[in-house]
Write a structure and sequence with these properties.
- 2 copies of one chain form a homodimer.
- By secondary structure, chain A is an alpha/beta fold.
- The first copy, chain A, folds into 4 domains: 123 residues, Rossmann fold; 123 residues, Rossmann fold, CATH 3.40.50.1820; 106 residues, Rna Polymerase Sigma Factor, Chain: A, CATH 1.10.1740; 216 residues, Rossmann fold (3-Layer(aba) Sandwich).
- Helix content of chain A is 36%, strand content 18%.
- In chain A, the strands form 5 sheets. An 8-stranded mixed sheet of chain A has the order 1-4-8-5-11-12-13-14, with helices on both faces.
- In chain A, strand 9 and strand 10 form a beta hairpin.
- The first copy, chain A, is elongated and about 90 Å long.
- Chain A starts with 14 loop residues before the first strand and ends with a strand.
């Protein structure tokens, strides 16, 4: 353990440790055996006394153990995730002890196809066995054992690193407290496999490939560069490329009328291809992309739901809106499978123009999610109460009247919830209600919210929160999986209330709905005598800029419930100031109303 | 002209004609000269006596002159667009005389890099001059001159073929009556240039390329296959690939743990690469993709708007929703530039999962647009009245009451329009009102509509119609470009009426708006006495499934006009049956209302 202390001068050496000795080979998923296995790794920060602050970072295709800091005084480039890992950064090395290792099959210190094959005395080349993501994770576990790490606070990674994160959560469920899979998937789709295959084809077709037994300086550089160029196109978004390069020409306003690279995007790709060739091994490229293509958790476990059945960590899944290689939809598939298992999962599709590369290029936004989630995972009790209140709606600024309205609504709803129950809050805002219910009534809560900032607020409170538009349905929530589903002040803004309400009644034993009453006497008077669309305290918007797309009264909702054969268990008409329900002519005097409903 | 008759047995030979003699070289856009130039072409159908039924088809990257029919009795594959071109098909050879030629730089009969360079007696290879889309079109024009064609009814093409169509419209404005650019763009973006560049790199890096002087059977097959594979990924959509291949393995349920192609998508790409190598020339691939990269109408003419300024044909631009290579947004850019020039343009973004290949794979839908547009272009008067009435809204079925309501609305609006004026109808449905105004009042009309079927109905009527969501604004419509803008029965369904209405007032001298009156006495009574959200003849929807997202009355709209400083020139309150306006207490008795407004 002596070597895993933070260096005082900020300069780190990548270390290497043997995790598999020649005489006791590693059994691979393919059935083949491999020995010896060495692992290159770096560490940042300090292991605390409890040993509960360890974070493992898993790198992507072209990464290595050198995640942060510099390796020597003249190292011009810090580690590949230096923007995220360090003192006070998203992954705070003042708090956490961070480990990153080069994965199996890599070419930066860990055993891979460029390592010497003991059987031949030459580099393995294509004699290296096909490895999988599971094999990589197995080797990472051996490294942690070697370092006497007893458990991980979190395992974090993007892209192929995210695949490793997912694999960790299912392969070593008791070892991992939190998992942060970023811009990743449980399996590649046909398009991604196709891009990988063309890249491999370019390498394999290169006349210098020599069946993988090329020598230093005479490798399949052309093929590898082409593979890298294809990769780079897929890492950026169309928008990102358009904004960065457009149709700009490198040296002139006029075309050169030859086949030299002249568009800026061409010279960029040339450069990316060339610099990759200088630092990466073509055989490793083949093995790693193959491992990515093979990764398929659903196939391994029978279904994706089954794959996640035994996980016990909490999850924070992150995708990026413009990522078309590891798409938001693929991250949602992960989240859906976890939800179907009733796991503790949060999800945000971070808005970014940077495509797949956003996991490297959005350190501030990404870091703000990661740091809050890690803090909550590390010290669960500290977080829940501390967060600033934002409440429902995307604007953090509320006037006092609105805030009062929501408070009355919340207090009333809170009184309806049984202790120790499970609660799903649709449009949960910053999680105020859920957090309060968690503290006061010991409920197990989950929030659904659309706004990115509000989702982050919930993450910071340590609440499971999923960024989702409830209009899309709740397909992956099992029947009666929550005691209560809450829909507070939202039904009048939903496009298809019938579809959504039916879904809520399927998922919850009871559905609690609150909304402003359109038949309040003030509304009636305005329409009757003034002949205009009502504008009141509860309906404070002019007709042309109202978020409310439906007008409904208690009577309308009663009829709606009859139509859907819904049992109205309670109907609590409220007005602005009264903290007690209104008994007389509620459809006339209630400004808002709370319904408790259930399926007949 | 003898040879351009349809063959009786349905079998066609590709013909070749010399359009540039050795002594009189073709001047290319690059400034270089080229001679001789031969062109391979095919024709289908018969030239009519007036000579006004000629259609030119421009092919894409890998196409050739053989667009339809078969070339010999044992020809196993008909021409590349046989699904579209033939008797009774989208491009009906019973009506039209269709010509398709292999473009300059191709490898299927027309002069290209594999032709013999008279200077050396060997194939040109890289000695062939860089050619452009404009050069290709120039050669097509020479062919038509040779065939004594005096003008084109239409020029049609997809992808790079669409680029030629656009070039035709600007280079020979008087020669072309109608242009149908499909799934194309006026310039490639950075991402498409990048894909092309990587493909070219793969060819150039192939050790068999030999600076372009490879010999038959010993060419850069590996590189060309990789270029084609990359191309194929971009021709399909992610969804299309997912549905066609998914993660299916070719021969087994289990992984082979080697680098052979095993996923179905891999073997598909292998096959596409291989079969392309057998029929295509690598040098042609270089020249054609370079021509596509260079195409940039905005650059050539100073701006895209200027590029289209002198066109005189009518346009039908088509894109496909899932096409990410030549995107719908790029087609919209073409349409915007034409709109900014006040040109006769129609546009539809056809819903399809097939990606860029949809222009080959959606012959029925695409054909239904093309055939209607061609008919209207060929015989303008015949079309306008014949079409079946569909009216507003996506459902063709309307009850009588609704139809009456719309008729009253329409008759009233019609009476407000001055003869010979220009009219933009927002949400124009099947174009009934516009067609009527065109016939009765000789207006020049343009429609905007979202629904694909209604857009097609308008195309069939010969009306300029643009598929567009007015909520996105009307940025490219110049100020006061229409005498009237009509917004009939739509304002209550618009999310942001203020933004939209402001745009309409900018674009039109007068804006005519009609909507149902929410303050009609029936509504007031229902809310007052029954305490429910009104359901009336004019507002026939229950609160939970209404397309109307705003409730507004005459009074609300009056206030709205005051707020936006809009002048209300006329206010015509109507009820269901009265064909004359209501004079007494209109906000109480009008079921609907028509406003004529203008900017103060």
């Amino acid at each position: 353990m002596a070597e895993i202390e933070k260096k005082s001068d900020g300069i780190l050496q990548t270390m290497t440790v043997r995790v598999i000795e020649p005489e006791k080979p590693l059994e691979l998923e393919s059935g083949k055996k491999l020995a010896p296995v060495d692992v290159a790794y770096e560490t940042y920060g300090k292991l605390n006394e409890a040993g509960d602050n360890v974070i493992l970072i898993c790198h992507a295709l072209s990464g290595d153990a050198h995640a942060a800091s510099i390796n020597s005084p003249d190292d011009s480039k810090p580690g590949w995730w230096d923007a995220m890992v360090g003192p006070g950064k998203g992954i705070d090395t003042d708090k956490y002890f961070v480990i990153c290792s080069n994965f199996l099959g890599g070419c930066s210190g860990t055993t891979g196809p460029s390592s010497i094959n003991p059987a031949s005395g030459k580099p393995y080349g294509l004699e290296f066995p096909i490895i999988t993501i599971a094999d990589m994770v197995k080797v990472q576990k051996l490294l942690l054992d070697k370092l006497s790490i007893k458990g991980l606070l979190a395992v974090i990674g993007g892209s192929i690193g995210g695949m490793q994160v997912l694999q960790w959560s299912v392969a070593y469920p008791d070892f991992v407290k939190a998992a942060i899979p970023i811009a990743t998937t449980t399996y590649l789709g046909a398009q991604s496999i196709a891009f990988d295959a063309v890249g491999r084809n370019a390498i394999l077709a290169d006349s210098n490939f020599a069946d993988g037994q090329y020598t230093e300086g005479k490798g399949p550089d052309g093929g590898l560069a082409i593979a890298r160029m294809i990769g780079h196109i897929t890492y950026l978004s169309e928008q990102g490329m358009r904004e960065k390069f457009g149709r700009e020409l490198r040296n002139s306003h006029n075309y050169s009328y030859d086949f030299n690279s002249e568009f800026a995007v061409e010279t960029y790709l040339d450069h990316q291809g060339q610099s990759f060739v200088e630092r990466f091994d073509a055989n490793s490229y083949l093995y790693i992309t193959k491992a990515a293509d093979y990764f398929d958790m659903g196939k391994d476990y029978g279904s994706l739901k089954k794959a996640f059945a035994n996980t016990s960590c909490r999850f924070l899944a992150i995708s990026f809106t413009s990522d078309w290689l590891f798409t938001p939809a693929q991250s949602r598939t992960i989240v859906d499978a976890l939800v179907a298992n009733n796991k503790d999962v949060s999800f945000c599709d971070i808005s970014s123009p940077y495509g797949h590369d956003a996991f490297l290029l959005e350190p501030d936004t990404l870091g703000s999610f990661i740091s809050g989630f890690l803090d909550a995972a590390h010290r669960p009790e500290a977080n829940k109460k501390s967060s600033k209140t934002i409440i429902h709606g995307s604007s953090p600024e509320l006037d006092i009247e609105q805030a009062t309205r929501i408070r009355i609504d919340y207090e009333e709803i809170e009184s309806l919830i049984e202790p120790n129950s499970t609660v799903l809050d649709i449009g949960c805002g910053d999680g105020q209600l859920l957090a309060h219910l968690t503290t006061e009534k010991n409920i197990k809560g989950m929030g659904i919210e659309l706004d990115q900032d509000l989702v982050r607020a919930c993450v910071n409170r340590g609440l499971p929160i999923i960024q989702h538009d409830v209009e899309q349905g709740l397909e992956n929530y099992t029947d009666k999986s929550y005691d209560y589903v809450i829909l507070s002040q939202t039904v009048q803004t939903i496009k298809n209330p019938e579809k959504v309400f039916t879904e809520l009644l399927r998922v919850g034993r009871k559905v609690i709905v609150s909304f402003p009453n359109f038949a309040h006497w003030r509304c009636r008077v305005q329409l009757l005598f003034q002949g205009k669309s009502p504008v009141t305290r509860q309906l404070p918007f002019d007709w042309c800029d109202s978020p409310n797309i439906h007008c409904l009264s208690l009577k309308d909702f009663d009829r709606f419930c009859r139509k859907l054969s819904v049992k109205v268990e309670k109907r609590i008409p409220l007005n602005k100031t009264a903290f007690s329900p209104i008994r007389f002519a509620p459809n006339l005097f209630a400004e808002q109303v709370i319904y408790v409903t259930s399926k007949k």
